[in-house]
Amino acid sequence: MNAQVFGRVSIEGIQAIALSRNGGTSLAPFGALNLASYVGDSAENVSANLAIAKGLVSASEIAVMNAEHGNTVHVVSEPGVALPGDGLITKQTDLALVALAADCVPFGLVDSVNSVIAVGHAGWRGVLANVMQALLDEFVASGAQLKHTQAIIGPAICAKCYEVPAERVEQFRDVRPEAIAATRNLDLIAGVKSVLATQVTKIHEISGCTLESSDLFSYRRAAGEPTGRGGLVIAISAS
């Protein structure tokens, strides 16, 4: 496996990769494969890293999510940073989609029959707001069929590491109880899976805890210091 790729899933001409933090052009503290333009890294380094990312999925263009921790979804056909939202969908061949993350859950949807792809970003607010269902609904509205849809879940902070105030856990009690791991711990991946598993045909998990693995970006590990963002990249091959 390429050192820049933490994990890869291939589905009938569609490539999905979870990026590591290695092998990019950014310097400390953003090092090295940072794709986020909003963390203080130089525009030149981010642009070079985006070029690396789109090459890893054999795409010529790339659209980057502009997450806001909600459930807004955009259909895109052009490269660049998207409007604020936590879901992107395209039917464009050769246009990679990026869900940035550094502890939150990056996830994707693939319908290879109808050639529709999507990426989503779910932190605790997004899981509560059910960005998963918002993305699924817009995915179908864009021409996908759930009977042909597979999902990919990228690395995120694990339940053991994700300790939060007990009051936050209680917010999930009636809304998304599947995400409750303990009195003070949330399992965001379980929250995302609880919605996807009932509607897609298969879920591929690229396992890894962002806090525990030094190969992944982690906002919590940075402990208030600047850090980069990796995440999940998906593209429909032009060939």
What's the architecture in CATH terms? 4-Layer Sandwich
In CATH terms, the superfamily is CNF1/YfiH-like putative cysteine hydrolases
Percent strand:
25-35%
Share of helical residues: 10-25%
Radius of gyration: 16 Å
Number of helices: 6
String of helices and strands? EEHEEEEEEEHHEHEEHEHE
Major sheet attributes: 6 strands, mixed
Total strands: 14
Uncertain stretches of 5 or more adjacent residues:
none
Quote the CATH topology: CNF1/YfiH-like putative cysteine hydrolases
For the residues shown, what is the average pLDDT? 97
Any overview of this molecule?
It holds the Pfam family Cu-oxidase_4. One of its GO terms (molecular function) is hydrolase activity. Belongs to the purine nucleoside phosphorylase YfiH/LACC1 family. InterPro entries: Cu_polyphenol_OxRdtase (IPR003730), Cu_polyphenol_OxRdtase_sf (IPR038371), Cytotoxic_necrot_fac-like_cat (IPR011324). The chain starts with a strand and ends with a strand. The chain has one domain (5-157, 203-236): 4-Layer Sandwich (CNF1/YfiH-like putative cysteine hydrolases), CATH 3.60.140.10. It has 239 residues and is α/β, with parallel strands linked by helices. The protein has helices spanning 43-56, 124-128, 131-141, 166-171, 188-196, 219-222; strands spanning 5-11, 14-19, 61-66, 73-75, 80-84, 87-90, 95-101, 105-111, 116-122, 149-153, 180-182, 185-186, 202-205, 230-236. The strands form three sheets. A six-stranded mixed β-sheet has the order 1-2-14-7-3-5. A six-stranded mixed β-sheet has the order 4-6-9-8-10-13. A two-stranded antiparallel ribbon has the order 11-12. A hairpin with a 2-residue loop joins strand 11 (180-182) and strand 12. The longest helix has 14 residues, at 43-56.
